[in-house]
Amino acid sequence: MLLTLLKSKIHCAIVTEANLHYMGSITIDQDLMDASGIIAGEQVHVVNNMNGERVVTYVIAGPRGSGCICLNGAAARMFQVGDEVIIMSYAQMEPAEAKDFRPQVIFPEGAHNKLD
Hints:
11% of the residues lie in helices and 44% in strands.
């Protein structure tokens, strides 16, 4: 049996861009991806703390150090610049591995999503 657990979380980041005329996905600053353990192409759940919207999409790497959190495509209708979001990825693992597993959680700060 496999269990699905939280693998990575970017907690309370700020949306910096919403691009309706793109094929889909979320663009995330490469520094934020590295710090959280999220990789390009990985499936993520994105929750909008401002309106309760939730989407499942995949990640595109954004420019390093940019603080970029950009919802692309149809999701741009549910997320606006300045909205606070939580971005989560999950992993499947055996119960023995899951017992000691700890997710990577980061807390970017400010409108530019900077890390300490």
